[in-house]
Design a protein that fits this description.
single chain, Farnesyl Diphosphate Synthase, binds geranylgeranyl diphosphate
């Protein structure tokens, strides 16, 4: 992951606009939001799924950069006062704190837009059908039927809390799962694979994404408990139902591990070539940050 992180950082650095003297802070703030931080998990999924089908690394890295642009935009907007109102992200002040709210909104808009410009460019793939398939899949994953729809459900849950696992699963599948699914399917799209192997990657992404979210809830609760005594995590403090608030710590942890195992089983069809993806499924439940 560290190696992919370095490679995608280089591609992002090349693609993002360079700050110009006398120009507004937009380009500088885009670089502030997208460079030098994060686990680069989604790029790693794109690169790993692409390796399964022997896709050229430079194509995979451009798709990886595009999905990371979308992810960074979502974090910048999620941190805004109108949404989660956070002061810190990736260990530094959030974009609206380092710059201002209007700049942070524009940074998100510009990263979102540039992601599609990158996918539509002939450098990403010589075949226009592949480029259209990538654009369509990423648009679905990030729009109202995917991440943005999930964020809308999340905002609504602040007013009317969710009470059952089915509703929380649906919310998380859209809010965070859809981008994971795109990242895993990207290799199959780039490799022009339309058979059950694409379905296997979707199934893997579904289970791994839920395991990631349960682990995130566990980190939230345990991180807070370590930091400031026994106070609840952020979502719980806000009265939001989470996997952990409904299942309890132990059952939630067991469920995350079960989902990671299940995710790995979907990869049987790829044999040892999918070991990187198996490692991701275990990493998301074992991580401490
Ligand atoms: C504002 C349209 C819009 C969408 C926001 C994904 C999202 C939707 C918001 C992120 C809020 C959040 C902290 C969700 C919890 C799970 C999550 C996606 C954490 C951040 O992803 P990581 O752990 O972050 O991959 P890094 O920094 O490592 O890239």
């Amino acid at each position: 992951m560290a190696e992919t992180g370095t490679q995608v950082e280089r591609v992002l650095d090349r693609l993002l606009p360079k700050p110009e003297r006398g120009e507004p802070a937009l380009a500088e703030a885009m670089r502030y939001a997208a460079l030098g931080g994060g686990k680069r998990l989604r790029p790693f999924l794109v690169v790993s799924s692409s390796r399964l089908f022997s896709v050229g690394e430079s194509c995979a890295l451009r798709v990886a950069a595009a999905v990371e642009m979308i992810h960074c935009y979502s974090l910048v907007h999620d941190d805004l006062p109108a949404m989660d109102n956070d002061d810190l992200r990736r260990g530094k002040p959030t974009t609206h704190k380092a710059y201002d709210e209007a700049t942070a909104i524009l940074v998100g808009d510009a990263l979102l837009t540039q992601a599609f410009e990158v996918l539509a460019d002939v450098e990403t793939h010589a075949d226009p059908k592949v480029r259209i398939a990538l654009v369509t899949a990423l648009a679905r994953a990030s729009g109202a039927a995917g991440m943005v729809g999930g964020q809308a459900l999340d905002m609504a849950a602040e007013v009317t809390p969710l009470t059952d696992i089915g509703s929380i699963t649906r919310l998380q599948r859209l809010k965070t799962g859809a981008l994971f699914e795109f990242s895993c399917e990207a290799g199959a799209i780039l490799g022009k694979v339309e058979d059950s192997r694409r379905g296997a990657l979707q199934a893997y992404a579904h289970d791994m994404g839920l395991a990631f979210q349960i682990a995130d809830d566990l980190l939230d609760v345990r991180g807070r408990a370590e930091e400031i005594g026994k106070t609840p995590g952020k979502d719980q403090a806000a009265g939001k139902a989470t996997f952990v608030s409904i299942l309890g710590l132990d059952r939630a942890e067991a469920q995350a591990r079960l989902l990671a195992e299940q995710a790995c089983r979907h990869l049987d069809v790829f044999g040892g070539r999918a070991d990187d993806l198996r490692a991701v499924a275990h990493f998301v439940v074992d991580r401490r940050a």
